[in-house]
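Protocol step 4 of 6.
Sequence for CHAD domain-containing protein (Draconibacterium halophilum) entered exactly as in the expression construct, tag removed. Do not edit the line below.
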Amino acid sequence: MSEEFSLEIKEREYFEEGIFRVLDKLHSDSARFITQTKRQHFYIHEVRTNIKKIRGLLRLLRHEIGDDNFREMNKYYRELAMEVAPLRDDTSQIELLQEIKSKLHNPAVTKALDKIISQHRRNRKNAFENFKQSGHAEDIKQMMLSLQQMMHSLNFAGDPESFILKSLQHIYMQARGAFETTEFLNNDEIYHYWRKQVKYLTYHLMLLNKAWPNSIRAYISDLSILGSTLGKLHDLNLFHEAIKNKSILIPEKQSREKLMRYLYNRRLGLRKRVQALGEQCFAESSEAFVLRIFKNWENSIMQKKTSKAF
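Step 5 output, structure tokens:
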């Protein structure tokens, strides 16, 4: 994987050229990663992340390519994401449980969690073995390469400034709406939805980071922290739900109570944290947000022209 590649349109790059360069890289990397037989956990994570980024970029193009094209393409990537997701889920829970062990330092809880971790590792091993034997990796590889070609059939004939701003306003409005909903609908699903919208907005702004400089870098950093914190909350919510529904059993009562107390306090702390970050990231209306982004971009262009004049 190239260390130099980033999800950005270059400063002097035409939008269409830049977006295809980024999309080509995401597709070709995913096609290569899905068939790797070493460090599979890492590469599956990369494939899953790349698919999320591609879906995020599709949303940036939605107002230009039209709803029909968007829905058709997004359907393909959503189905691919659903096929890859189970290969990553056990790893996410293993990482979470190892973090909990390091925080609690309780022998009884550690013993109980070690059993659960061992089961996740067995599940993960079986999932990868079945995936390898099925030959499905090659199918996904060919699908990614076919979708890459389909992407090149899309036409960006309009003004990028116009449809980018429309898309940014729409996804910001979705993310802000989800944040506001958490104030009166405090359940796991809304936090998960909010997390997805934050990720899409982050991917949009990352793409424009160099093309529209000096206006969004600090905001991208804040969004990334929010997205990461929402991700931690999501993993905790899944584990908490599994214990509550008894799909994960902790037989020893004292260990279970101590663990549930930790989960309650940790989830509460993370929810307070994301509320504070949400207030920071979504303080303005979608109209004000887009206007600020555009004004900062205009000022950046003017500064460049002025510096060239001298």
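Step 6, annotate. Residues 159-310 form one domain.
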